[in-house]
Amino acid sequence: MRIAERNPWVDINTKPERPQTNAKEQWGIFLDKFQTAIDEVDTLGKQSEKLTQDAVLGRVDNLHDVMIAAEKAKTAMNLTLEVRGKVLEAYKEIMRMNF
Description:
This protein has two helices and no strands. By secondary structure, it is an all-alpha fold. It has one domain (23-96). Helix 1 (23-56) packs antiparallel against helix 2 (63-96). It is elongated.
């Protein structure tokens, strides 16, 4: 096992410099992450619907899996709606600012 030595002459509070990104790059990164999150919520909803249909048709042996999938989809959708609300509030607040 190798233990890295700590240099006592280096200030602990200094942060390594990160490459600066411009606003367009940051917006693109945000949109990519947002789209991925929306796709995941949609996937959870579709899985829940499929399991529910299978349960109604009698193809599911374990009802617990159906309920867990439904709760996951419900929780993900509620979280998405809350985030949307916060984003809209932030946007409105920015629009009210006077520069």
